[in-house]
Amino acid sequence: MIRNVAKSLAMEESFDYSPNAEVVEKVLGAPRFDRDRFTDNSVAGVVTGLAWTSVGGDILFIESSLSKGKGKLSVTGNLGKVMKESVTIAMEYLKAHAGEYGINTDVFDKWNVHVHVPEGATPKDGPSAGITMFTSLISSFTQRKVKEKIAMTGELTLRGKVLPVGGIKEKILAAKRSGINEIILSMQNKKDILEINEKYVKGMTFHYVDTLKEVTDIALLTEKVERAVEII
Questions:
Q1: Which residues touch 100 (CB under 8 Å, ≥6 apart)?
Q2: Angle 48-109-130 (CA atoms, 0-180°, nearest 5)?
Q3: Domain carrying residue 108
Q4: How many domains does the chain have?
Q5: What is the per-residue pLDDT across 90-120, written as a single tens digit (0 to 9) for each?
Q6: pLDDT at 36 (0 to 100)
Q7: Phi, psi (rounded to 5 degrees) for 172
Q8: Are 218 and 187 a contacting pair, CB within 8 Å?
Q9: What is the dihedral of CA 86, 87, 88, 94, to 10 degrees?
Q10: Which one, of 93, 159, 90, lies nearest residue 127 by Cα?
Q11: Distance from CA of residue 92 to its chain's centroid?
Q12: How far is it, in rounded angstroms, from Cα 98 to Cα 82?
């Protein structure tokens, strides 16, 4: 009976064998989640990172905000142990090298820091968001804008080094799908990019770095966000 119904439907309706996005949406319905998107740079502390999942690459946002307090660090977003450690490393490196970014060390005892990764229902872990978290913190403490259409992936160390991570091909595909055209990643991941067919990375710019200072020099603008908060 099911076979007869399917045959009847096939005879009554015509199908496009080379469907575009509009046809796919008409047949399957509107997408439930708009996961592949990036935000603008009007708010300090919001940075786009790249992640690997069991079903391919994805983008994620790291958000950080400051509030008057006594230097408490809060982390939310259903993060695993390794990802929480990355936040701690990023914060400690920032404290140790605050002067390089024009930050008075007194602010660390006067402001609470909250780091959040949206989509809290989804568990997240791994070290690859380390440099994204650090960039987010620098942006919040300096109120500097983050460059538009840029994403990053890489592990950080207490020495300020950027280490390579996995899943690069899948992450680059996710970035391209989202309209991101600049990527920051470890110098040691350059070989992974060279293995990708050139037509898939056409129009994209890759910044290969060794240190966190290089990351922030590329990702942060000197311009501050509108309604910038004075962090003193």
A1: 213
A2: 25
A3: 35-224
A4: 1
A5: 999 999 999 999 999 999 999 999 999 998 7
A6: 45
A7: -65, -40
A8: no
A9: 110
A10: 90
A11: 21
A12: 24
What's the full length of the chain, in residues? 232
The catalytically annotated residue of 64, 86, 128, 186 is 128
191 as an active site residue: the answer is: no
DSSP code for 147: P
Q: Is residue 11 part of a domain?
A: no
Question: Within 13 Å, how many C-alpha atoms sit on residue 217's CB side?
Answer: 9
pLDDT digits (tens, 9 = 90+) for 37-66: 555 678 999 999 999 877 788 899 999 999
What is the 8-class DSSP label of residue 211?
B
Q: What CATH number did the domain enclosing 68 receive?
A: 3.30.230.10
Asked whether residue 180 carries a pLDDT value surpassing 90, the answer given is yes
| 74 flagged as catalytic | no
* Coil vs helix vs strand at 35: coil
Q: Spell out a b/e string for 30-42, using b for 16 or more CB atoms within 10 Å of the CB, else e.
A: eeeeeebebeebe
* Contact indicator for 63, 41 with CB cutoff of 8 Å: no
CA 158 to chain centre: 21
Task: Single out the catalytic residue among 171, 176, 178, 186.
Answer: 171
* β-sheet bridge partners, residue 150: 182
Q: What is the pLDDT of residue 5?
A: 45
Classify residue 25: in a domain, yes or no.
Answer: no
- Is 106 a member of any domain? yes
Q: Give CA–CA dist 126/147, Å, rounded.
A: 24
CA distance 225 to 13: 53
User: Is 145 within 8 Å of 27 (Cβ atoms)?
Assistant: no
167 phi-psi bin (left φ>0, alpha ψ -120 to 50, beta other) = left
Q: Report if residue 20 sits inside a domain.
A: no
